[in-house]
């Protein structure tokens, strides 16, 4: 079953067409990457899926329901969870409080505690820093908090917007390892990344966006070996 299905999506900002006739689907359990240059429309696509941007036209189905009819505050309850570009953590709250915020709509306190323990195992660095204010963490640690908080929301479809942005290569590798771990635990993921090679290496399929349009869509290993992708996005 497609957990997400987008057909003929058009999004404008005033006179600028940011997304043109976009078609995209994600099957249950997949890890799918959306790659493309700056300004290609990747973030706009994610923001439209989560209701933050209203499309001009198109069909958006999440678990066969029309996303455009869903109230934005219900998305997280339904398992549609985004980690935005720039992480969106609460800087004045501690690491632990940030994680708890991910479970704000839940009342199963014992399960929440177990899941916080699980997130702390996944990110041992956060365990060490549980009482530190999140705004004082390094960029990589903040990304871990944002992803940990998203896990506490029990995502069915996790949207990750450029999780490697601004991070040192060794930290980027850690973040990608954690994305793979989260995926292996059954979470379906849509990953937006500039770091096309690493993203495609862990993905089932990929979409390439240029100037608001999908120009290629294929299995990740096919894209990884495509000469056009190699020269445009993989530096080879
Ligand atoms: P990046 O990798 O740089 O984040 P992107 O692929 O995510 O790029 P978008 O952020 O979706 O691209 O932007 C697509 C186009 O829409 C760009 O031309 C951008 O300038 C424009 N745009 C994005 N947000 C707005 C806005 N709020 N108002 C007007 N134009 C916008």
Automatic annotation (TrEMBL):
It holds the Pfam family ABC_tran. Coiled coil: none annotated. Residues 4-236 form the ABC transporter domain. GO terms for molecular function: ATP binding. Keywords: Amino-acid transport, ATP-binding, Cell membrane, Membrane, Nucleotide-binding, Transport. SUPFAM superfamilies: P-loop containing nucleoside triphosphate hydrolases. InterPro entries: AAA+_ATPase (IPR003593), ABC_branched_ATPase_LivF/BraG (IPR030660), ABC_transporter-like_ATP-bd (IPR003439), ABC_transporter-like_CS (IPR017871), BCAA_Transport_ATP-bd_LivF (IPR052156), P-loop_NTPase (IPR027417). SMART domains: AAA. PANTHER family: HIGH-AFFINITY BRANCHED-CHAIN AMINO ACID TRANSPORT ATP-BINDING PROTEIN LIVF. Belongs to the ABC transporter superfamily. This is ABC transporter ATP-binding protein. The lineage of its organism: Bacteria, Pseudomonadati, Pseudomonadota, Betaproteobacteria, Neisseriales.
